[in-house]
Amino acid sequence: MDKVRVAIVDDHEAVRLGFAGTCEQFDFDLVGSAPTVEELLIQIEGKDCEVVVTDLSLADGSLVQENVERLIAANTAVLIFSIADKPSLMRSAVKAGATAIVPKSQPMADLAEAIRLASQGIIINNSETSALIDADKFFKDANLSTREREVLSLYASGMSLKQVAYQLQIKQSSAKEHIDRVRVKYAKLGREAATKVDLFKRAIEDGILSGELL
């Protein structure tokens, strides 16, 4: 039987080295190891990587949803290997297409089994992480459009409406209309969004901004 070809993205070198040992123990072919998705994609190009293991949050401030989407676009399954204490980011990862979330508290044998299943295209339902996501008291989906998420991301991260408009090449009045609609959508769900600080909190909760900004 061919070895499963795997790679890891984690900003802690100790985790990457530990994963290399796990690959040797469970007879996986480690084809890439990097601190960012950007670097890993370069490493695994043309290597037919089957599964990538990554964390919810990385030091480069990248968003887990975007990371998962980029990895899936590279034709690989994605496993989240994390302390699993951020339900909003976990939800974003699953929504983006992550195959499973494996808490770092679980035995490495569980991660190895998840890798094998993911390489076969099997979606893994982990009851522990599912319960944590479902219990997230903050989450009520505002169903923001792609443009609303873009505007919210820039505005909540500190830009003025004028700067947002310039960045996205839209009118300032259009940027304001998007923010107004975002506020209304959150307000209808009982999620406070009156101030810029409120919007920043909502963006963090929904995985639109990285928690590393806190």
UniProtKB/TrEMBL annotation:
The modification 4-aspartylphosphate is found at D55. Residues 137-207 form the HTH luxR-type domain. Keywords: DNA-binding, Phosphoprotein. InterPro entries: CheY-like_superfamily, EvgA-like, NreC/VraR/RcsB-like_REC, Sig_transdc_resp-reg_C-effctor, Sig_transdc_resp-reg_receiver, Tscrpt_reg_LuxR_C, WH-like_DNA-bd_sf. This is Response regulator transcription factor. One of its GO terms (molecular function) is DNA binding. PANTHER family: HTH-TYPE TRANSCRIPTIONAL REGULATOR YHJB-RELATED. It holds the Pfam family GerE. Residues 5-119 form the Response regulatory domain. GO terms for biological process: phosphorelay signal transduction system; regulation of DNA-templated transcription. The keyword Phosphoprotein applies. The keyword Transcription does not apply. CDD domains: REC_NarL-like (cd17535). It comes from the Bacteria.
